[in-house]
Structures are given as C-alpha cells and as structure tokens.
Amino acid sequence: MPETRLHPDHFLHIMLQELGFVVPYPSRRDEISADRLEEFAQSAVEPVAGASPFQIELGPVNAFEDAIFLEIGGGARLSKLHNRLFELAAIPSEPDFPYLPHCTLAHFTGVSSTAGAVAALTPFRSVSFGALEVTEVEIVTMNAAESYPILESYAVIPLGR
Description:
The protein has 161 residues and is an alpha+beta fold.
C-alpha cells in the first residue's frame, strides 16, 4: 500500500500512558525530568503488581484518520491500568482523545488517497490475529529525534506479584 508507512517490528507496542520526553530542565507540557520519571516508575509498582495477568485479543484491523491499527480485545483491563497510571502521571491537561487500547501498524503518508488502504483493510475488519497474555508492564524511553527509535527499557513491572 503506497499510501502507508509500516512501523518496524521493534516499534510495535500497546501504550498504556504517555508521560513525556525526558529532558534535564522540563519547560513544556510534553517534557518531564529524570527524577519525575523515576518517581512515576516507583509509584506504578503497587497498582501494576496488584493486577493479575490477563489475556488480550489482537484485532480486528481498524484505522484512525492518520494510521492503521489493531484493536485490542479485552481492553477493559488495559483501560483500568491506564486510568490508574494516568492518575499517577498527574498530567497537567487532559489528552485530546480518550484512551483506546490499540497497536499501531502503519501511518498514512499523505502522498495519495487513503481510499485504497481502507478498501484493502475491509476483509480484515472482523479477523482476530491471535491472543497474548499480558504479564508485565514496561516503562520505556526513546530518542524522539529518530524515526521509529529503539524503545529502551527503563523499568519492567510484573503483574500479579
């Protein structure tokens, strides 16, 4: 699909809570300090470890205005974790969109109509692509100056401790 740019495998993830970019001296809404990241990681241990492992379904395929993604079945458990982590993150403003558990697969490039891609997705609108057991939450950092950077593990918190 020439109107899309696929995410590389290493960048596939299901986001629970975005915190911001780690910088020495935060001055914007989308920036946090290393100390604040550590504080968040420590405060996330209890609610994450207190949740038991659970299964999610991958699919069907869907699309936002700018991206193709897999819906996540069983997202109620992810939403519950997200809500608790959102409280802990203490983000100073509400996000533009409500939380929707998903895994982005590709972004539209804007070089041509998305109609072809949307038509190509139609057969997959009712397909499940398998299930995963969620056993941990990983807090990651990344180099925002790179396209599709490696997600660097900051902390891993097992569920059900």
